[in-house]
From TrEMBL:
<protein>
    <submittedName>
        <fullName>Uncharacterized protein</fullName>
    </submittedName>
</protein>
């Protein structure tokens, strides 16, 4: 799987995530969504990663 790597959540779950994900990013599921998204907190907003 190109541009993917393994990651582990704080709860111990493993996931394949985009290679651009960094320590401190969050895994989030939004209302109505079918898949979890990687999000990165910013100073005044949260942006999607990958």
């Amino acid at each position: 799987m190109a541009n993917r790597r393994m990651a582990r959540s704080l709860r111990g779950y493993f996931a394949m995530v985009p290679a651009c994900v960094r320590r401190g990013d969050y895994i989030a599921t939004f209302a109505g969504g079918d898949v979890p998204l990687m999000v990165r907190p910013r100073s005044w907003f949260i942006g999607a990663v990958g």
